[in-house]
Amino acid sequence: xxxxxxxxxxxxxxxxxxxxxxxxxxxxxxxxxxxxxxxxxxxxxxxxxxxxxxxxxxxxxxxxxxxxxxxxxxxxxxxxxxxxxxxxxxxxxxxxxxxxxxxxxxxxxxxxxxxxxxxxxxxxxxxxxxxxxxxxxxxxxxxxxxxxxxxxxxxxxxxxxxxxxxxxxxxxxxxxxxxxxxxxxxxxxxxxxxxxxxxxxxxxxxxxxxxxxxxxxxxxxxxxxxxxxxxxxxxxxxxxxxxxxxxxxxxxxxxxxxxxxxxxxxxxxxxxxxxxxxxx
Length: 280
Description:
Blueprint: H1 7-34, H2 38-43, H3 56-62, H4 69-100, H5 104-114, H6 121-134, H7 141-166, H8 170-177, H9 182-193, H10 195-211, H11 214-220, H12 229-237, H13 244-277
Helix pairs in contact: 1-13, 3-13, 4-7, 4-10, 6-11, 7-10, 7-11, 8-9, 10-13, 12-13
């Protein structure tokens, strides 16, 4: 049957369309101004100018001696992979135990870990710096990886817990009848069923780690020789820079990889969230 559009539906679609377009404005400004000269950007930053558009500024940003974009990519990708791997290895067994334990202590432990989601990262950066300096990890990649893994654990644990709790306990009982222990049940039966939510958490954690500026800037520091994409952009454009032919192309190069990954993997995000929202 053909559905009729109600005024409420039309209003909802119009509102969401306006909000979506508003969110795309910064990306539009970034792309448009990447191919314009300084004078054109200052004269009219919103209008595209196809007649004088040039890739020269993008090439200059790629070959910037102050910031190797390839090194920034490599460091950030390594950071993203290590953080996601550690968060997965820590949170998967913890979420399984908490989800399968009906005792009150399990719920209290869950609330304790979830509380970390409400603490801004910037609040704990200073004490973390003192701790990392005391153990000799300040200005190193292992120190940054451990800290950023700790910041992703509350969200990862919370999402994994909700997903595992939806999975029927009959799976555990059937595995126990076949002689499988809890370790075997988790990694051979439960984890394969978690692939949609694992993909979702991986993408969301990757976005968080990729876009973080304060943590790598403070922990790695300028003297370590290591920089992520965000800290490299800061070093390339300068603290008081007004050369927009350097700012916009560098920013575009910084966001392209994570933007492509999100566009390609967004269906996994939606399917994972939808799967976790359905109770079995």
